[in-house]
Amino acid sequence: MPYILANKYLNDMDTSKDVVQEVFIKTWEKQVPYLSHNAIKSFLYTSVKNKCLDRLRSKHTKVIVNSSSIDLE
Fold it and tell me: Which residues fall within 8 angstroms of residue 2, CB to CB, at 6 or more apart?
């Protein structure tokens, strides 16, 4: 269950489910070829992990920018 992996990174079940849904939709839209069960499973888990890391980086960047603007005042 990919959303459990996402939740380990994000610690928010709703956001985790959103990330997994985004990955599934993007995979469907790009029509990623289905090579084998193990290959697609690995692809989806890796995609979910990478999307979570992107979210965390984005969240971290927003915190840094917000704290920098507070310091400037």
Answer: 20, 23, 44, 45, 48
- Give the C-alpha separation, 49 to 19, whole Å: 9
- pLDDT string in tens for the chain (73-residue length): 888 999 999 999 999 999 999 999 998 998 878 778 888 889 999 999 999 999 998 876 565 555 555 554 5
Contact by Cβ (8 Å): 9, 34: no
SS3 state of residue 32? coil
Buried b (16+ CB within 10 A) or exposed e, 20-59: beebeeeeeeeeeeeeeeeeeeebbeebbbebbeebeeee
- The pTM (predicted TM-score) of the whole model is 0.75
Residue 17 CB burial class (10 angstroms; 0-12, 13-18, ≥19) = middle
